[in-house]
Amino acid sequence: MTKLRLGVNIDHVATVRNARGGTLPDPVRAAKLAQEAGADGITAHLREDRRHIGDGDIEALMSELTVPLNFEMAATDEMQRIALRHSPHAVCLVPERREERTTEGGLEVARDENRLAHFIAPLAEAGCRVSIFIAADRPQIEAAARIGASVVELHTGAYCDAHAEGRFDERDAELARIGDMAVYAHELGLEVHAGHGLTYETVPDIAAMPQMRELNIGHFLIGEAIFRGLQPAIAEMRRVMDEARGRDTVSPAP
């Protein structure tokens, strides 16, 4: 089975830095450590309110990384200009609301197809791989394909929340839905990624899906780094993913 890529999201290193002000901890240093620990790429979300990653972080990441940068952004004119200025390896369009603590749910593509198709066209022309962060939902996947996205990143938050809260029937249903929609997106010619809320416990069944090509994981790894260090935390996630990738079938944990 094709190796599954791990993208490490460093947003919450910047969250800790910004809580006190100043320059530490440095998210760029975290990105470099992630590279050394086996990350295949770095994800950073430049929000409109700049609550964690800042413009200077993007500048530094673009100049210092040796692995691809996945630039998460809202579909706004300002973010489009920034992305076109930097031309990162990938841009991932995500929903964004100022009152949310983190990205909640997927982008509504089906109701905004025309605008989003025109929005992503110059990004694709600039050589960026365009990804859309969406719910594992057939109409959203079909809309993403129609507007010319090359990648869909399926939202795994509901699956992870159900697991954490012991709602195992709901967890298993969410897992089955993600698996079915990964197959469908792949059939439509889209590259399939996933992310949001994944942990050592929840990642194996997602990683084992043969259509998956990349998982983007951040908050859990930054939190786990407090206890075991950033590089060991990432190395363990890499190990768990690789082990799961060798499985022949997807079966939820008891």
UniProtKB/TrEMBL annotation:
EC nos: 2.6.99.2
Entry keyword set: Cytoplasm, Pyridoxine biosynthesis, Transferase
Pfam families: PdxJ (PF03740)
Residues that bind 1-deoxy-D-xylulose 5-phosphate: D11, H12, R47, H52, T102
GO cellular component: cytosol
Coiled coil: none
Keyword field contains Transferase: yes
Family: Belongs to the PNP synthase family.
Descriptive protein name: Pyridoxine 5'-phosphate synthase
Species this protein is from: Palleronia abyssalis
